[in-house]
Fold each of these.
Amino acid sequence: MTSATATAKVLRHEMLDACGKKAALTAEGAATLCRLLAVADVAVISGGDWRQSDRQVASRLPVDAARERQWLMPTTGTKLYRFVDDAWRTIYAELFDAAEKASIRAAFDRAPSELGARSLGES
C-alpha cells in the first residue's frame, strides 16, 4: 500500500463520525488532507451539495493547503468545484431541467404499480 493510499484511508475514516455518517474534517484530518494535497490531486465525492462540501471540507483546510489540487464533487459527482484564481469555482454542474425532473417523478410514481405492488390497504 502506498503512503497516499494509506493517507486516503485515514481521511475516509476521519470524515465519518462514530455512526458512519459524514462529518466535518477535524483539525487533524484537515492537516492530513493538507499533507496529501502537497503531493497529489485529491477528489472528495459526496452526496451533499456545495454548502456541505464547503462547511465540512473546503473551509477547514489550513491556510497553506494546495487548494488548487483539491477536487470537490458534491451531489455524487454531478458537480465539480475547483480552486481557481483564489476562489472556489463551479467547473460543471449537470442538473436536471424542469421537464426531466417531472419525467423522473412520474416514473417513480408509476413504478410500484408497474411492478405489481399493491397499496397497504389492498389484500
Note: DSSP finds five helices and four strands in the chain.
Amino acid sequence: MRTVGFMLLPAFPLIPFAAGVELLRLTNRELKSEYYRWQLISLDGEPVSTSSGIEITPDVSLSDAKALDLIVVVGGEGVEHYRERATFKHLLRLAKEGVAIGAVTLGSFVLARAGLLEGYRCTVHWEYLESFQESFPHLDVQKEVYEIDRDRLTCSGGTAALDMMLAYIGEEHGGRLAQVVTVSEPPTNPSGCHSPFDSVSVIQSSYASSR
C-alpha cells in the first residue's frame, strides 16, 4: 500500500493535479485493489482555490499529514514568490521521515527554497526555467519533462505530471503498468474522432515499450 499526498498551493492548476490522481485511480483499477491512496493537503487544512477559481476542500492540514510515502507540491503561477516558512518546515520534516518529495509545474520553487533539491537533479515548467536557474544557480536543473532522482520527483507541469507519475508507479510495478489503461480498439464518435483517452494509452504504451 502507498499513500500519496497532494499539497495544494493557492491558484494551483487542475491539469497536473488531476493527471496525478487519475493515474493512481487507473492503476488501482488494474491491480484490483486500493494499492494507492491519496490525500489532499493544504497548509492550514482550509479550502484552496484553483487557477480556474474552483475551490477544493483538502483532507488534512500539512502539519497533520502522516504516513505518507510521497508528497507532491502542486503550484501554479505566483508560487515562484511563495515563502511560507511553515510549509518549508513541514516538508523538511516529512523528508527526514523518509517521505519522497515531489513537485509539479512551479512547485519546484517551493522545494528549492526549502533546501530540498540540494544535490538532486530537478526540473520546472519550461516558461520559468531561466528564472529558476537564475534564482538557484547551484542546483542541477535539467531541461526535461520530468526528473526522478532517488526520492525527489519534479516535472514541468501540465500533462508532464502524468509522465512523472507513470514513471513513479512503473518503478514499483514494471511492465505491468502497460495494462493500466486498456483500449484495444479506440472508440470513435459519429464524426470519426477518437476518444480523448487515446492520449493516455499512447503515453502508457510508449513507456511500456521503453522498459
Note: Residues 181-211 have pLDDT under 50 and may be disordered.
Amino acid sequence: MRSDSGWPRLLAGIFLVFALFHWSATALGSDRGQAGLLVGAIVVAATLAVERLFFGQPIAVAAPTLGLGAPALRGPLAAAALGLALLLVIPVFARVTQSSVTTYPGWASLLPGLFAQAGIAEETLFRGYLFGYLRRGRSFWRAAILATVPFTLVHLLLFVTLPWTLALRRCSSLSSFRFRWPTCMSSAAGRSGLPRSCTSSCRAR
C-alpha cells in the first residue's frame, strides 16, 4: 500500500515514463502507431520498473495493480459499443457537412500499434499508475481531479516539441480514470484519426 509520502516518487515516475514515452514515439516516427507495439512495450516495461524501483512492488503484484489483467467480458463489450459510436460520428459528420470520407493509407496495418501505443501504454501510465495511486483512500472524483494536475503538466511537454494544433489534439482528453482494458479500447478508437473527411473544396483541389 502506497501512502501520501510517496508523492515525490509518484510524480518522478510520471515525468520519467512520459518523457520516455514521448521520446520513443518521436524517435521511432510513431505518430499513428507505426511502431506502436514497440512503444507500448517500452512504456509498460518502464511503468512496471517504476513500481518495482520506486515503490518496491514485485512485478507479479504491480501488473494487476496497473490493470494489466484479464478483463470481465462486459467491459470489452461496452468498450466495443463505445468505440463503434465514436466511429459512427465520422459518416454522420460527413453527411451533415456534405464531405467525403477517405482512409489513411495502410490504416488496417496501423491498428495493432495504435491499440498498443494510444491504448495500452497511455492507459497503463495515467489510469493504472497515476489514478490508481491517487484513488487509494480518496473518492473517485477527488482522485480524478487530483490526477488532472500531473496529467496536464506532463502533457505541456508536447507544446514544446510538437505543432500546437497536434499538441492540442493529443491533450484533448484530460480526465483520468482507473485503467481497464475497455478504457484502453475506447481511447485507441477515439484517438485513431485514421478515417479522414474531405469537404467539397478539398476535393476540388
Note: Confidence is low (pLDDT under 50) at residues 173-183, 188-205.
Amino acid sequence: MPHPPSDPAGRQLARTFRALAALLAVAVLAPAAAAQLRLATWNISNYAGGRDLDLRNAIYAVYNGRSMAPDVFTTQEFTSSAAVAAFLAILNSAPGSPGDWAAAPFIDGPDTDSAFFYRTTRVTYLGTTIVALGSSDLNNQPRNTYRYDIRLLGYLAPSASLGIYSVHFKAQGGTNDAGRRLVEAQRIRDNAQGIDTNGPGSGLPAGFLFLLAGDTNIQTSSEAAYAELVGSQPDNSGRFFDPINSPGVWNNNFAFRFIHTQDPAGAGGMDDRHDQVLIAGALRDQSALDYIGSPTLPYSTTTWNDPNHSYRAWGNDGTSFNLTLTTAGNSMVGPSIAQSLINACAGSGHLPVFLDFRVPGTLGPTPATIDVGTLPLNATASVTLTIANDADTSLWTEAGVSDLLYSLATSGDLATAPGPFAEPATPGPNQHQIAIDTASPGPVTGLVTITSNDPDEPVRLVAVTGQVVAPPACPADVNADGLVTTADVSAFLSAWFASISAGTLQGDFNADGVVTTGDVTSFLQAWFNAIAAGGC
C-alpha cells in the first residue's frame, strides 16, 4: 500500500507563518522591492518632463513602512521620447530606487501616449504591440492602445508572461464619447483572445496572461465599454475581471471613496474611479502567477487598509471625497507624499493605482532514475521521492511565491498516494514514499509522473529500477560462491553501507523494508549458524 508524504508539525507551522506573512504584506504594504511583483499605473497628466522632486517622493518615499515602489509601471499622457527619458532618469535616481529601471521604446501616436517602464532585475521586456490606432474620427478611439509584453525573470513559459494593455479611453463629454470607449474596449477584448486586431501577429500570444491598466474614463460598471471588458461571452478567453470586485456607479458615490483616483488636485475633488487595473481570470485562481488578495471579495467600504487586497489607489485614505486630496493627517501616505501626488498632477489629474502578484512555484531537482538495487522477494519495500518548491525566494521572498501544486501518478511495480499536494516555498520539502511491489522475482520497472503548476515543466518523469530476487538457499552465502567465509561478511557489509549511503534496500537482510543495524544482527546470526553447521 502507498504511504502518505511526511508532513511534520514544523512544516505545518512554517505554512502557517507563511500565510500570516502574506496577509501582513497586504495589510502593511511593505515596499515592493522587498517581495512579490508590484504593478502600478498612473496618468501623469500631459507629462513632458520635470516635476522631478515630487515624482521621486511620490514613487519612492516611505511612510509608516509603506511605499509605492513598483516593479512594472505603465503610464499615460506622455508627450515625447524626451519625456520618457526624463521619467526614466527620475525612477533610477530617486532615493530608495534600486536603479535598475529601463523603458520600452516610445511610440508617438495621435494625442498623448502611454509609456512603459520596468525593472530589469525582475522582468524581461519582450516587446510592444500597437493593438489599435487612434484618430480624430468621432467613431474611433482617440489614442493608440499599446500592449507591453513581459516575462518574469528566471521563467521561460508563456504562462509566466504578461501582456499589459495600457489604456487611456476617451474622456467623458463630447460627441460619441461612450461609443469611442466601446470601440477601444472591443478591440482590446478581441486582442486578448488572440485575434490580430492590428495586422498579422498582433494578437496576444498563446498561453500569455494579461491585464489592463490605465485611465478608463468610465464612471459606472454598467457602461457598455466596461461590460465589454468584464462580461461573459461565448469565448471567455479574453475576459477581464475587477480584482477588487467592486462594481457600481463610481462617480460621485461616497461608498467608493477609498478607490477614487480622480481628481486629487482640481476643484471637483476626488469623486471618480477612472483609473483601474483589470486582470485575466488566470491571475485570480490562486494557482501560479496570481493577484495577492481575495478577488471574490469587494473592497472595503470602511477603510483604505483592506487586509483582503493588495490593490490600492495610492494616496487616497478615504477622507477626500469631493475634496482635494488630504495632506495633513493622510493616514495612508502622510502629508509629504500626499502633497507630492497633488503637485505631480500639475493642477488636475489622477492618483496612481497599484497591486501585487505572487510568482509561480517551481519544481526542485529530482533524479531522472532511482535504482533501488536488489530487493528480497516479498519484502516490504519503498523508495523516498523528495519534492521541493525551488522558486527564487532570494528575489521574491517566501511570501511572494505561490505554492507548488502537484499530484503523483505511478505505473508498473510502483504505488503511492496521488495527492493533490501543496508545497510552499518555505524551507523543508515534502517526502513521499513510493511503494514497490516485490511479490514476483524479476526486474523492478515503473514511472512516477509528477504533474505540477510549474510553468516551465508541468510534467516530469522519474524512473524506478531494481531487481527482486528470491532468497538464496543459504542466506549467509552473500557472494553466492557456495561457501560461507569471511568474504561473505565483507560482501554483506559492503552492500549494507551502500544502502545506508544511497537510501536503497540492498542491505535489507531481514526484509523488513528498512536498512538498519537490525540487518547486521540478522546476517551475523545466519552467518554464525552456517559456520557452526559446517556450511550450507
Note: The chain has three domains: 1-35+360-470, 37-358, 472-536.
